[in-house]
């Protein structure tokens, strides 16, 4: 009887946790550059003084889905999308480097180039600062240029710097709670990769498939209901056994 309770209890708990992961993916279906989180189940034996005859279920998030999201042409000068593999580098709150595919950039009040979330974008030589009132252009190789916004010609473009573009192995990346990716704790920051290129005037969308996410949410809900039914069945069986013993 207790084996049935172990299976049903752990299954219901992990179905709820997996539902939370799927719900988070679904909530970010319109978030630029979002990478869906992968959730799976695994069996974990119960370790104790007796023989390991019982096991419970644990939900794990082994990584993210690194497939590319759809590209949307915006025509905005500060919108960039990574072409193929690679990442933009931003500065995390603790000053370390983090990686993102979110390319809808903006210029802060201090002239610093940032993401829409306010994360400073990192260049090959540090932060990128644009002169006040300048019009900005970003080339496919990450070169950031500025010119007088009142100018009607392309002459007089000044080089601001170059975006740091990296392409570390996806196995070396870890997703943070803020949605940014970082190198594993035992690894140094990724080196700039000149092979990574950008598409100007476009942004990459989320790679979450709404239909697949909805199907996963329904499946998790049905799994939770099944586990709860098993708990109820175990309770009924226990009550019936107690009655038989009492009147036996």
TrEMBL record:
Q: Give every Flagellar basal body rod protein N-terminal domain span.
A: 5-35
Q: Which PROSITE patterns match?
A: FLAGELLA_BB_ROD
Compartment(s) of residence: Bacterial flagellum basal body
Give the coiled coil ranges. none
Q: Which Pfam families match?
A: Flg_bb_rod, Flg_bbr_C, LlgE_F_G_D1
What are the Flagellar basal-body/hook protein C-terminal domain coordinates in residue numbering?
Answer: 200-244
Asked if the Swiss-Prot or TrEMBL record annotates the protein with the keyword Secreted, the reply is: no
- The record places domain Flagellar hook protein FlgE/F/G-like D1 at 81-144
Q: Name one GO cellular component term.
A: bacterial-type flagellum basal body, rod
Primary location recorded for the protein, binned into one broad class: other
Keywords in alphabetical order, please. Answer: Bacterial flagellum, Cell projection, Cilium, Flagellum
Please give a single GO biological process term from the UniProt record: bacterial-type flagellum-dependent swarming motility
Superkingdom classification of source: Bacteria
Sorted alphabetically, which InterPro entries does this protein's record hold? Answer: Flag_bb_rod_N, Flagellar_basal_body_rod_CS, Flagellar_FlgE/F/G, Flg_bb/hook_C_dom, FlgE/F/G-like, LlgE_F_G-like_D1
Per UniProt, subunit arrangement is: The basal body constitutes a major portion of the flagellar organelle and consists of five rings (E,L,P,S, and M) mounted on a central rod. The rod consists of about 26 subunits of FlgG in the distal portion, and FlgB, FlgC and FlgF are thought to build up the proximal portion of the rod with about 6 subunits each.
The family note in this entry says:
Belongs to the flagella basal body rod proteins family.
Per its record, how is this protein called by name? Flagellar basal-body rod protein FlgF
The species this protein belongs to is Acidovorax cavernicola
User: Taxonomically, what lineage is the organism?
Assistant: Bacteria, Pseudomonadati, Pseudomonadota, Betaproteobacteria, Burkholderiales
